[in-house]
Design a protein that fits this description.
heterotrimer; A: mainly alpha; MetI-like fold; 0% strand; flat; B: mainly alpha; 2 domains; two-stranded antiparallel sheet
Amino acid sequence: MAGARQLPGQRYERRSEWKEGVLGLVLALLPFAVLVALVIIPAIDSLLFSLGQIPKNNVAFSTGMHLISSPHLTLQVYRNLFSSKYFAADLALTLSVTLFSVILVVVVSYGLALYVRFTHDRFSRLVRSLYLVPMFIPIVIASYALITFWGDHGFLNAVFSHLGLGFRTPIFHEAGIVLGQVWQSIPFAVLLLGSGLDNIAEEQIEAARDVGARMFTVFRRIVLPLNLVPLLIVTTFTFIGTMGSFTVPYLIGPNAPQMLSVDMSSHFGDYNQPQPAVAMAIVTFVIAAVAGAAYVWGTSRDERKSR
Amino acid sequence: MSPLWFLKVSALRRVFGVVLVAAMGVFLLMPLLTMALWAFSQTWQYPSLAPTVYSLKWWAWVFQNGDVGHAVFYSFTTAPVVTLLSAVICLPAAYAFSRLRFPGKRFFFVSLLATNAFPKFGLYISIATLFYRLNLMSTFTGVVLIQLINTLVFMTWIPAAGFDGVGRELEEAARDAGAGPMRVFFRITLPIALPSIIVAAVLAFLAAFDEAQGTLVVGLPNIVTMPVLMYRLVSNYPEPVSAVFSILLAIPSIILLLFARRYLIAGYLAAGFTR
Amino acid sequence: MKETNSQSATRRAARLAALFVSFLFASGIVFASGAKESASAQQSSAVTINFYTGGDVNVHDLWANDILPAYKKVAPNVNVNLVFSEHNGSDQLVFDKIAAAKQAGKVSGVDIWETGRVLQAGEAGLAMKVSATDIANLSKVSPDVLAQAGGYGVPYRGSSVVIAYNSQYVSNPPTTLQGLFDWIKKNPGKFTYNPPDTGGSGDAFVQAVLKTSVMSSDLKTFQTSYNQSLESEWGSGWKLLESLGPDVYQGGFYPKGNVGVLQLLDKGAIWLAPVWSDMGLSYLAQGLLPANVKLEQLDPPFSGGASYIAVVSDSLHKSADDAFLNWLLTPEVQAIVIHKMNGYPGVEWQYVPADVRQKFAAIAKNYSFGFSAKFDSDMHQMWYQNVANAGKN
């Protein structure tokens, strides 16, 4: 209340609050400054370039072919992009691969997490170390290993042919990209889902089992609802990661259609068309940002609930 | 009967466990094992299930190759530098996110996610032009900065959860006993939060070490790291060469895995992303 | 305050981590001491020329293992610092680097530059015209070859794309382009080529097909300049490539890169493919291709080209640059280039030692010239749209 007399203690508290606020801001600004300098500013440069503003001091951009230049902001680059059936096919592939990857990652990882949580024999301990492996293998190596294992005339092909079975390789097809992305995303997903499961008290599960609930009901009615935030995180992070990934699609993907990141690289390096490349980056970012927004919404809702 | 009835029978549950472990093992590990075999093979023709002629000649080739030494040097110098720099920049912020109240806290915290959301390739093209202006292209500093981007989320989010886990009562008790804020931080807060910081450091190191795209754009032609060299080897050399190099590239990662496994499983990673 | 067990374990872990990091540093330095030593040896020389180049590994090995050590013996006080990049995009990066330096009024630090963009660089003022007055041996180079790069580069070697075929399965290889198409139809799944943007061998094949429908009066434009409207002449060429698709390996799979195709040939998965002559011969020599794989040139020949080295305009060591480039064109060095690269010389065949000429008689014909860089870029995109996407939309 204005004009009300303050006790000396309160004034001190407000001043130290203010000091705390400033200190906190300064410290938080350190990584944020790196973010601004290395991500936000270049991203804005890219956005402007995709809107028809050709920067004079940027040789890579200004010597591109088929540039669309305009005194004011224009959406022509995007219009060209979205009217191209090849871009549509590439976008469709990217979304399809992302969708399948997310679903498979969730299903496989949840299965693994549940198994590890509810089984306590030596196999589950083994699984616990097993699922961490992909996190520690650089993705270039992993892609290459997947190609030699799953590829045409590869190891699995040899095994199948010895067993007299036919073999159709997923490598250099869409399924191969999904394979690589799922392989790579399992550790993070299992760790997160598993930790969420750990937070569910054993008593709750036991109580439900005591009243005769079957495993699946326990899962559906107790585990799933209490583990929503980790599930949301796994979904959004896998979504964002798969959308923007380059190495797996580049090494394992088909000739056509291509994932957007490979498309971007082709346009920038091979076709010498940096402008559509940058526009594609912006489109990818917008889609990923939607997933990011879902993450923010989901986690802050949870935070507010727990207050 | 529920579809998971067999889980009730303990014998069948064991079988299920074995099958699951076997399937997971095949899926996750077999590709790596076959690749390891390639590293020691001289001739491996389809449809043989193992190399027909073994040899170490490609190892000799790789070790004598000057480019490999060059790449190893740069990988092992950029990654630790990036990790240290990231720690210096992010750990104080992590402490602030955990302990201090300030406006826009949630915004600054979540905004770091933008480092992951913008497609790396598009980003690197734009960063390259910025680096040209600042004369950072193809320099050690430039590569360090590029690799730094991928570490920000790990180095902030995970330690923040770690600091969350330090009870305020402990800190207050120490302060009541007369310890100054620095002493409190180093003797009480930091040791308890250390597992989280270790996890963050390991993941940040791996993120920097494995970074290929950005280093390719910014580092060439002077600074070549192992993942960048890997791209060239995979496309230009016979299989055994890539296999040998893969093993070399994976060794530090495996060592880190053995070291950090305990902390990851204990939940320090997950805590960072669910706070 | 006593530490708990886990806290002391963590302390130990932290110490271990610090040890580990220092170990990494140390091992990195030890590992690379060999590489770094050669780098630091440069400082004692009188003149250092920075030579930027790139390409496949055989190019790198040629410079690093054969030519530069030989030059060190000839000119001990000149150090040619090899800056090598294998990435396709690095041509653009070096171009940007020199252009940026020029704009900023600084010295780029690039003295000589082997690149596919010599003409572009020259026209942008980044490279100087070369002439026989500064580099005497240029008189031995064919004027056509010089003109292909606008007079801005010294061609020190060449290569041509040829047909490689597995003679165990192919007794009568085609000798013309039309013969090749017929062969592909008769032998489905046994032929492929790499996407044109990933390697020169596939690029040359696609260009050869496209040229069949181009008017001969426009051919010169396609090779030396750029006019986007002329690309409509490629129409029937694209249709032809599209129609070949189903008979290509695996119904239309094109492995990335020159080496991808060579590996398929090696595995016996395909029987016939376009390959670079120098790569094919190198692989045969190393046993990376079975001995029954042979090479032949079609009539009219696939395109090839010379590799040009440009003298960068802002180089501070022009006379040293010229001396080095001149030395590259001497018969002895050209013989090294031909032997090591299994390629064509930069000078005309008559200026090469007779025994070498004899050895390469089978493919030592001329090659045709490919599209200029801008046409090539558009062609890459159209290949993706017309051929890679065939039957998918």
